Amino acid sequence: MRYLSNGILTINMKKSYTHLFFDLDDTLWDFSKNSDNALRRLFSEYRLDTYFESYEYFHSIYLLKNSSLWDLYGQGAITKSYLSYERFAYPLRVVGIENSDLVNALGRDYLSFTSSGTVLISGAIELLESLKDRYVLSILSNGFKEVQYLKLKNSDLLKYFRYIILSEEVGVLKPSRIIFDESLKISNCSVGKALMIGDNFESDVKGSLACGWDAIYFNRFNEVINERTNGIIEVNDLTSIKLLL
Ligand SMILES: [Mg+2]
Questions:
Q1: Which domain-ending residue is among 69, 99, 115?
Q2: One domain, residues 143 and 215
Q3: How far does the centroid of ligand 1 lie from the alpha carbon of residue 49, in Å?
Q4: Residue 19 Cα to ligand 1 middle (Å)
Q5: Dist. CA 23 → ligand 1 center (Å)
Q6: Are residues 77 and 15 in the same domain?
Q7: Is the separation of the CB atoms in 237 and 5 below 8 Å?
Q8: Residues 48, 86: one domain?
Q9: Boundary (domain end) residue, out of 115, 147, 177
Q10: How far is the CA of 99 from the centre of ligand 1 (A)?
Q11: Cα(158)–Cα(130) distance, rounded to whole angstroms?
Q12: pLDDT of residue 208
């Protein structure tokens, strides 16, 4: 069955969950906004307007390249350092600039600026407050470890989570089965008691369902998913999750 959070919630979720696993980026911590803020700051501080006609132009090239690099990284085809370098080297190359010092500085400062971002998804704190005494809460994230901990700390989210499970520490990214199995082991949980909550349909939802977990799909931007998959509960805001659990 597939439910939509259309304001009327008549859903009976299983009451047997003991452990909730949250994705971090764009589920609790507003990656899109914090990243955009960081990139705007880089654009201004490094005078990238010298090379790009507008921030929007630079940003569109960056986003496309970054997304394809993360796909390759997820497949194990490229390293983290290649991803970090190439996502800035490529846009500069598009406008005819080859400058490895600039690329390295942009890569370094991007991680620093982003991880100091504190914009959360609306309702995040309220949701965690309502769940913290009733469930074991964990983060299950694909981000880089040196920034994920800082994001959690800087935005005051760290205190809510018993376990922080990061792809970089486990060695594989979601949706690999290995990271979901490992999460159960680390948190002393079992399949029927685990619920995954995340915004990425492939990594968070399909990945966890394939391992026998249940999942809440946080479809923040109402993306159309043509796949009909059993066992998914879909919400469009975090407040709806609070009402479900
Ligand atoms: Mg996410």
A1: 115
A2: yes
A3: 30
A4: 19
A5: 6
A6: no
A7: yes
A8: yes
A9: 115
A10: 31
A11: 16
A12: 95
- In this prediction, residue 231 carries a pLDDT of 63
Quote the pLDDT of residue 8. 38
| pLDDT for res 178 | 97
Q: Do 145 and 134 belong together in one domain?
A: yes
Say whether both 78 and 186 belong to one domain: no
Do both 163 and 135 map to the same domain? yes
How far is ligand 1, taken at its centre, from the CA of residue 198, in Å?
A: 6
CA–CA gap between residue 120 and residue 220 (Å, rounded): 13
The pTM score is: 0.91
Amino acid at 201: F
- The pLDDT tens digits of the residues spanning 81-128 come to 999 999 999 999 999 999 999 999 999 999 999 999 999 999 999 999
Write the CATH number for 70: 1.10.150.240
Cα gap 78→125, rounded to integer Å? 35
Which of 11-15, 16-20, 59-63, 161-165 comes out lowest in average pLDDT? Answer: 11-15
Alpha-carbon span 144 to 13, nearest angstrom: 33
First to last CA, the chain: 17
